[in-house]
Amino acid sequence: MRASSIVVAAVFAALTFGLWAWLNRPSPEPPWPDHVQGMAFSPFGSGQDPVPQTLPTPEQIDADLRLLAGKVTAVRTYSSLKSLGQIADIAARHQLKVALGAWLDRQLATNEAEIAAAIDIANRHANVIRLVIGNEVILRNDLSVAELSRQLDRVRDGVEQPVSTAEPWHVWIKHPELVEHVDYLAVHMLPYWEGIPAEQAVDYLAMRVAELERAYPGKPIVIAEVGWPSDGRTREAAVASTSNEAMFLRRFLRRAREEGYIYYLMEAFDQPWKARYEGAVGAYWGVYDVDREPKFAFVEPIVRIQQWQTLASISVVLASILLALLYVHSRTLDARGRSLLAIVVYAVTAGAVWIIYDYSQQYLTLRSVLIGGPLMLGMFVVIAVLIAEAHEWAEAHWAIPRRKPFVIAAAGASLPKVSIHVPAYNEPPEMLIETLDALARLDYPDYEVIVVDNNTRDEAVWRPVEQHCARLGARFRFFHVDPLPGFKSGALNFALARAAPDAQVVAVIEPAWLRDLVPGLAEPNVAIVQAPQDYRDGGESAFKAMCYAEYRGFFVIGMVTRNERNAIIQHGTMTLVRRQALQQVGGWAEWCITEDAELGLRLFEHGYEAQYLPQSYGRGLMPETFMDYKKQRFRWAYGAVQILRAHARALFSHSDERLTRGQRYHFVAGWLPWLADGLNLLFTIAALAWSFAMIVAPHLIDPPLIMFSALPLSLFTFKLVKLAHLYAARVGANIRQTLAAALAGLALSHTIGVAVVKALFTRNQPFFRTPKSKRPHALAEGIAAARTESLMLIAMVVAAVGLTRLPEELKGPDVSVWVAVLLIQAVPYGAAVLVSLVSALAVPARWLGTLPQSRAEARPTVSP
Question: What's the alpha-carbon Rg for the chain, to the nearest Å?
């Protein structure tokens, strides 16, 4: 590794560690007092839940109260039945006072039992200093004010202690008639639920207390719940975090001492069971976690993440190792390319470490695991794609000079006999005859042409081609075979078996490239020489111009970087194959619908090399309609997964040494975006389900963590910036052509996703030939070509709009980011609809302009 690479890595490692330190800089806050007046006390542990009545035992309650003894003066309870009714008795053993609660809801029989038990306990225990009959009963609309008032009057008549019911401050303001039936106001002050920033929450709370004092002078006020959650969704400006919980409580305790408030902190221990009924945030209000460990520092300065040094070190080490692997295999990168890789690698690694840490701090339930597991998998896929995209960007633009230059042989080089194979199925005869005429004009001394028409039923289609071959002479041989298994590869194997015995090279069309490319096979270890596929009909319509711009990136950018590590994708047309090597590896694979790419990988596994020459020699035809374009890309993506499955050992097993690490990297990284499209399809369906669930039950279903949402947004933005830069710098495209390429590529995302998912669960898929020279579809057919994408687009937009209409108190950055994710996810579907309409309406190509000749490299080198 170069010394400059070490310097770049060290600089970004220091910057990463410094960023962790800056985000976690200590914030001094008022110290926690020796004694807290009171805490809300729900002694439920892991796996316990009051709804199905899985209650804590008296022994567990005793252990919890023993922990609080000496730190808390009083506890507030919520029920007086079963084991919870023993809290007052157990608390007395630990010299703790009790604000006794009775739970009221719509179950009137249970309400009667709660009230009777509360009266009995209050009369038997001197440490019961007040009663709280009902908790947010009016807020939940479980009882009317009149019904609750009758119950309050009944309890007041039965006990000597002061009696109240607990409600948020605004309920007390709204129902002054309720105040007449209580001895004091038991008020819930939870600014988080109102979307107040944590920094302003204590002042806001004091303002509301003053408002109640003005409204009901002389009526004592007890803050029955006051707290802040350590995790959960963001509500407007209120961010749930451990550091915010610590800051709010420590500031409140100082203000409470100054103002003389009576209060009960919300709450002693985290309650994971609440997540099922209040959303995830309900589980995280405790001063102590569910394992009874303190969640934050009581005296020391507050930091966002107490273990940040460890996490920063882990992220720096992981990033350094990954960056070193990239640098070792990218020695031609200059400082700018290495810096780009460093920025991306250190950023995504730090983000991944933070996300994993944050997820690990949550209470895992079956639902959270089912949701979090796929999100974690998706995160790693997004990170892998990001790094692969960054690596291709760096190598495409900042890796000069090339380690493997592109070479054209000089005059006088050996020119062995070439057998050119032309497979055809249902091809328009006039187009095929034009191709054969071009082959007849080849500037090459010794070649033959074998045309194999397989499975074309209409004699009027293949018979003119047969007759034209006869007119062209003996070097043109025509075969019509029906039936012939194996699709295109079956036809190519048929031609291979009938090639002239002295033919040393197999070529899969087109004209004028043989003299330049055949000498590339002079070295016996070179089995493939490949030139880019080009197209002659890019100016016929805007649709074809968009396709042409999208294709161009692969040949000018992707193939150039792959050639550096002898890992090009063989793509059939404009390819030469050493006949001996082709026969040695068993010919074309008839089980694979992308037999050309599969053959290239198989030849690499046998130790052969390939040469890529980024110079156009022949021009074919592009898909005529958007539906044809989709079918072509479906075949490519489905075939890619077929290849990955069949060659998994060579690609992924360290014990299999048939491929170099560079070849493994390019084949996996090259198809990774397609695999990501398959995962993204599942993610989109899940995102829609999740979004509609949020709309239906906004208080129970939270949006994903912002970082889970931010990663797809980052990838989308990164890919657009990369595309814009490389298309301008390497392809020579203008803004319109770059946008056209982006839209054409995005329009295929759903199709690729479907192909990948199908290929993962099926073995074979019918071969789709890309139709050429068809009459353009009518508008209705053009719209129908994107029917599925249109429905998905509508669903995404409806979900996004629905989330913008959530209650104001539920809106926050996490919801806004999730809406942005939905809209970004909708972009490929919108692109598909747009491209399909452009195809159907036959929009002219002139608005895009003409792409210049390849600027991927300077003119190829001429070998001596």
Answer: 36
CA-to-CA distance for 435 and 429, rounded, in angstroms? 10
**Mean of per-residue pLDDT scores for the chain:** 88
Tokens of 534: 């080009």
Q: Which of 624, 558, 544, 630 is nearest to 851 (CA)?
A: 544
pLDDT for 139-152, tens place per residue? 999 999 999 999 99
Q: How far is 658 from 343, CA to CA, in rounded Å?
A: 33
Q: Pick from 237, 194, 852: which is nearest to 549 by CA?
A: 852
Kind of pairing, strands 505-508 and 575-578?
Answer: antiparallel
Q: What's the CA dihedral at 469, 485, 569, 342 to 10 degrees?
A: 160
DSSP notation for 233-281: --BTTB---HHHHHHHHHHHHHHHHHHT-EEEES-SB--GGGHHHH-GG
CB atoms within 10 A of CB 441: 8
DSSP labels for 769-820? ----SPPPPPHHHHHHTTHHHHHHHHHHHHHHHHHHTS-GGG-SHHHHHHHH
- Can you tell me the mean pLDDT for 211-217? 96
Best CA proximity match to 148, nearest among 164, 159, 128, 168: 164
How far is Cα 397 from Cα 731, in angstroms, rounded to an integer?
Answer: 11
CA distance 614 to 346: 33
Q: Please, which pLDDT band fits residue 124 given cuts at 50, 70 and 90?
A: very high
Among the listed residues 356, 327, 256, the one whose alpha carbon sits nearest the alpha carbon of residue 32 = 256
- Work out whether the CA dihedral 457, 462, 464, 466 comes out positive or negative: negative
Question: How far apart, in Å, are the Cα atoms of 493 and each of 479, 490, 590?
Answer: 13, 5, 9
What token pair was written down for 814? Answer: 């996490």
Of the candidates 512, 442, 544, 454, which has an alpha carbon nearest to the alpha carbon of residue 773?
A: 544
pTM of the shown model = 0.78
Band of the pLDDT at 852, cuts 50, 70, 90?
low
The encoded tokens of residue 736 equal 């319109």
| pLDDT for position 81 | 95
